[in-house]
Write a structure and sequence with these properties.
Blueprint: H1 4-20, H2 26-32, H3 39-51, E1 55-56, E2 65-66, H4 68-76, H5 86-97, H6 102-117, E3 120-124, E4 133-142, E5 145-152, E6 157-163, H7 170-184, H8 192-196, H9 205-224, E7 230-233, H10 250-257, H11 259-267, E8 275-278, E9 290-299, E10 302-312, H12 317-337
Antiparallel strand pairs: 1-2, 3-7, 3-10, 4-5, 5-6, 8-9, 9-10
Helix pairs in contact: 1-3, 2-3, 5-12, 6-12
Length: 338
Amino acid sequence: MLSERRLEVLRAIVQDYVGTEEPVGSKALTERHRLGVSPATVRNDMAVLEEEGYIAQPHTSAGRIPTDKGYRLFVDRLAGVKPLSTPERRAIQNFLDGAVDLDDVVGRTVRLLAQLTRQVAVVQYPSLTRSTVRHVELLSLAPARLMLVLITDTGRVEQRLVDCQAPFGESSLADLRARLNSRVVGRRFTDVPQLVQDLPESFEPEDRGTVSTVLSTLLETLVEEAEERLMIGGTANLTRFGHDFPLTIRPVLEALEEQVVLLKLLGEANESGMAVRIGHENAYEGLNSTSVVSVGYGSGGETVAKLGVVGPTRMDYPGTMGAVRAVARYVGQILAES
């Protein structure tokens, strides 16, 4: 375990390197920070930090930079994430409040995260496997044609046309709508098939075929929409950090094109808890020079998806974590109110 003083020296090195992009020397540390010790003591502390792998010397200059291990300890020992200012919080709320549907919410969230953090933003759509039914609407379009509208607790809306075997009257339609909603509203999508399997038997024989067709369409909708989707934005922000990527930025860009890779990265966030993956902690080799900050979002304490950012390991971790957490909280509020 590092002493508190050496931890303070490491914190100062991380903060200075993130801020200046230049390797940090002992003289600069003692001038910029009130460490309460002599430059010689700071040099000794830096030697110990280097020996234990928390900092490294990139070339023959006197300066040092944090390693992945150093950043990891810095993040693990953070006293707290950096709170957003009142204007920043108000800007987030105003920007997201104007969203008209779920696609707009996700699109606005990606743009907002990319602007706030100046990193690459990744937002996963709410997973239907974790969603619950808010309402099922059935509308008559013609004597033997219906429209089924499925609304989820996350604001997702799915519409399907249903061609019936025979004309289906308004009173029968109202009856089916009421019985269907009484069984499935507030229930998980994964529970729906079992909840409705005996529903046709409760109708008159001449209506059972149509009821079965409606239920089949509903269950097919759940299967079709179960595929995970995400949106990415702010990739151009990486061009500002060209020198942070040792050889080329190409492996990072290629990794960002792989949706499976990004879903796996986001999936490592523990439910609604924050996850920070630094450098070589990312299993995908193309992202070994990056850090990923992700968190779950949802409503009512239920996590329905993840969002986060990807950037160089030389990242403002307290600020990035604060922004990611704040945006996730606002998105959850919007879903709860939608």
